[in-house]
């Protein structure tokens, strides 16, 4: 049962490599086939010198372009690997970043152009400015994550689109893409993230009221001396604050990875960097092996979650059990802003936990429904790669969490949209 998929995958891989190395494009193959057929059926059999000359000229042009493109491809295969240096990038998503890669193609070559794209990491697009003569490569990351190699697919073609050859080049890299806050920089959260009885004010003091006392020591403020006690006992005593037996951590947070979760990852990053979880917090994310206790570790967990496969089981259940053992009472769960398996699994896991949870999700749109497009539009134009979370998507996601409050945040504006179940048109 397992051999057939592997054979099919190998066959598809081989056919893909053959098509990449075959010098003729579909248009070039059709033109060559028609020209050869015309050359023999009309030019040779009917001795039509005009058709004979024209078809022979077209055949010669196609073969000459094929030879030129093939020669350049061989030259690039032999020379480019030695010139590809290790690439190092540490960049937020959505911001163009320059690499050291340059198209090493002589400018004096006629009728030849070159373009390329990243095959790995897949969520990286090449900026159009990279194809302007004299510019290096600029890339834009669409998803956070880490990578140790870069695989590029370089296509050499003629300006007429008749011939093309694609080659793959791999070089070592050290890539780290982090979530981009975007409009969340203007996000304002003045109140605590949970109810007052569940999460203390992170700006408060760990010390209690000054109800205890001790003997006066040199350097103690005079205003803290208990003068009535001194008048009665002739002993200098000062007031001191009540000492707590232990400072229990109260708030933790977990990030559930999934499709279209970049905005939610950015929201989690902003809350962590602003220290809205208070002190002694705990943070976990899908794909991260250990829980984080510092902002640097938490952001690294978010980066690692970008490489997480959503088809794999989430670690939310294990995280909640461990957080409950450590004395946490509240957990903030960051979710992708869409319904589906991650939301259903997270809702089931949360219902089995005794921790009080608050669901947070962020989107790059305000939940507006996309304009309907005709079938002809979908055939002629490539659909956008960014998934748009509609109001119905947000409502369906929120309805999965029956016992937990849900807050939706718009990353583009930093506006808190509230719980979709309480929106006016959600009734």
- Principal-axes geometry comes out as elongated
Report the β-strand fraction as a percent range.
15-25%
Gyration radius, rounded? 32 Å
Average predicted local confidence, pLDDT: 83
Q: What is the annotated CATH architecture of the largest domain?
A: 3-Layer(aba) Sandwich
Low-confidence stretches: 190-204, 367-371, 376-386
The CATH class of the largest domain is Alpha Beta
Query: Remind me, CATH topology of the largest domain?
Result: Rossmann fold
Tally of extended strands? 15
Determine the N-to-C terminus distance.
49 Å
Fraction in helix: 25-40%
Biggest sheet record: 6 strands, mixed
Q: Helix-strand pattern, N to C? A: HHHEEEEEEEEHEEHEHHEHEHHEE
In DSSP terms, counting alpha (H) and pi (I) runs of 4 or more, how many helices? 10
Number of domains: 3
Strand order of the largest sheet: 11-10-12-13-14-15
Structure description:
- Helices cover 33% and strands 22% of the residues.
- The chain is an alpha/beta fold.
- It folds into three domains: 21-178, no CATH class; 183-201 and 247-426, Rossmann fold, CATH 3.40.50; 207-243, no CATH class.
- The chain has a six-stranded mixed β-sheet. It has a four-stranded mixed β-sheet with strand order 1-7-6-3. A three-stranded antiparallel β-sheet has the order 2-5-4, with no helix packed on it.
- α2 (26-44) runs antiparallel to α3 (49-83) and α5 packs antiparallel against α6 (295-305).
- The chain is elongated, with a radius of gyration of 32 Å.
């Amino acid at each position: 049962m397992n051999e057939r998929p592997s054979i099919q995958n190998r066959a598809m891989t081989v056919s893909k490599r053959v098509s990449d190395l075959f010098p003729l494009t579909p248009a070039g193959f059709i033109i060559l086939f028609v020209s050869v057929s015309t050359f023999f059926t009309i030019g040779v059999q009917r001795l039509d010198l005009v058709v004979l000359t024209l078809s022979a000229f077209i055949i010669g042009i196609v073969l000459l372009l094929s030879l030129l493109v093939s020669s350049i491809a061989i030259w690039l295969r032999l020379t480019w690997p030695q010139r590809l240096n290790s690439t190092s990038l540490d960049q937020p998503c959505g911001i163009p970043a320059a690499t050291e890669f340059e198209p090493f193609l002589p400018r004096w070559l006629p009728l030849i152009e070159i373009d390329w794209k990243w095959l790995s990491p897949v969520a990286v697009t090449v900026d159009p400015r990279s194809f302007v003569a004299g510019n290096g490569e600029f890339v834009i990351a669409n998803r956070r994550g880490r990578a140790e190699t870069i695989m590029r697919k370089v296509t050499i073609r003629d300006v007429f689109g008749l011939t093309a050859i694609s080659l793959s080049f791999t070089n070592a890299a050290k890539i780290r893409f982090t979530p981009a806050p975007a409009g969340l920089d203007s996000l304002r959260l003045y109140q605590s993230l949970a109810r007052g009885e569940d999460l203390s004010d992170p700006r408060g003091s760990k010390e209690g009221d000054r109800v205890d006392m001790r003997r006066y020591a040199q350097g103690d403020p005079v205003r803290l001396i208990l003068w009535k006690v001194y008048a009665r006992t002739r002993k200098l005593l000062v007031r001191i604050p009540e000492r707590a037996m232990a400072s229990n951590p109260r708030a933790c947070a977990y990030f559930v990875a999934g499709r279209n979760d970049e905005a939610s990852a950015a929201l989690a990053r902003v809350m962590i960097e602003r220290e809205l979880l208070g002190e002694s917090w705990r943070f976990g994310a899908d794909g991260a092996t250990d829980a984080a206790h510092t902002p640097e570790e938490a952001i690294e967990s978010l980066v690692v979650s970008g490489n997480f496969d959503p088809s794999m089981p989430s670690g939310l259940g294990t995280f909640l059990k461990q957080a409950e053992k450590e004395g946490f009472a509240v957990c903030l769960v960051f979710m992708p802003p869409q319904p589906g398996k991650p939301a259903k699994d997270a809702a089931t896991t949360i219902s089995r936990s005794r921790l009080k949870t608050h669901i947070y999700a962020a989107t790059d749109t305000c939940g507006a429904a996309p304009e309907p497009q005709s079938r002809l539009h979908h055939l002629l134009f490539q659909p956008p790669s960014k998934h748009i979370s509609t109001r119905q998507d947000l409502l369906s996601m929120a309805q999965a969490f029956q016992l937990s409050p849900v807050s939706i945040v718009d990353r583009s504006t930093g506006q808190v949209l509230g719980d979709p179940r309480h929106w006016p048109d959600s009734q």
